[in-house]
Amino acid sequence: MVAGLSEWLEELEPAAVLVYVSMPGEIPAEDVVNHGAHHFYTTRTPTSGWLTVHDFNTPRERHRFGYEQPAENAPDVDPAVIDVVLAPGLCFDRSGVRLGWGKGYYDNLFERMRSDVMAVGVTLERRVLAAVPSEPHDHRMDYLATEHGVRAV
């Protein structure tokens, strides 16, 4: 578990928090669900198109890559309702640039959210680098959550 992430969330006013369901190799973030007075959501990777947002407790199915996600018929939610995003990544840099899996799913999702959404990169300290490549469309994280705690970038 990422040190202090649950406690950090508990200090926030009640919010709509987007939590990813971890794939192999990602830091599990699901443990924070039900901490504080928040409402939790997660994403679905459809067969085609971009990520969709769903209530965290909606029925699930297994994606072809082995992780769980909301079932195909689960009602989706407007991404603009989200206040806080816990985002996975291969690595991050100290200025909050996120390097993902290269499909642009999270970059597209951030484009559909409010500009004031709070972005939290969830990773291990050894995956926080001095710099990673970035492009103009990349959404920077506001915070990084590692085994050393949650810090602003």
Keyword list:
7-stranded mixed β-sheet, 153 residues, Rossmann fold, single chain, mainly beta, 3-stranded mixed β-sheet
H/E element string? HEEEEEEEEHEEEE
Tally the structural domains: 1
Give the fraction of residues assigned to helices: under 10%
The CATH architecture term is 3-Layer(aba) Sandwich
Proportion of beta-strand residues: 25-35%
Q: Find the CATH superfamily.
A: NagB/RpiA/CoA transferase-like
Rg, Cα atoms, Å: 14 Å
Q: Tell me the span between the first and last alpha carbons.
A: 20 Å
Uncertain stretches of 5 or more adjacent residues: none
Strand order of the largest sheet: 3-2-1-6-9-11-12
Name of the CATH first level: Alpha Beta
How would you describe this structure to a colleague?
- This protein is mainly beta.
- It has one domain: Rossmann fold (3-Layer(aba) Sandwich).
- Helix content is 9%, strand content 29%.
- It has two helices and twelve strands, in the order αββββββββαββββ.
- Strands 3-2-1-6-9-11-12 form a seven-stranded mixed sheet, with no helix packed on it. Strands 8-7-10 form a three-stranded mixed sheet, with no helix packed on it. Strands 4-5 form a two-stranded antiparallel ribbon.
- The protein is globular and about 40 Å long.
- The two termini are 20 Å apart.
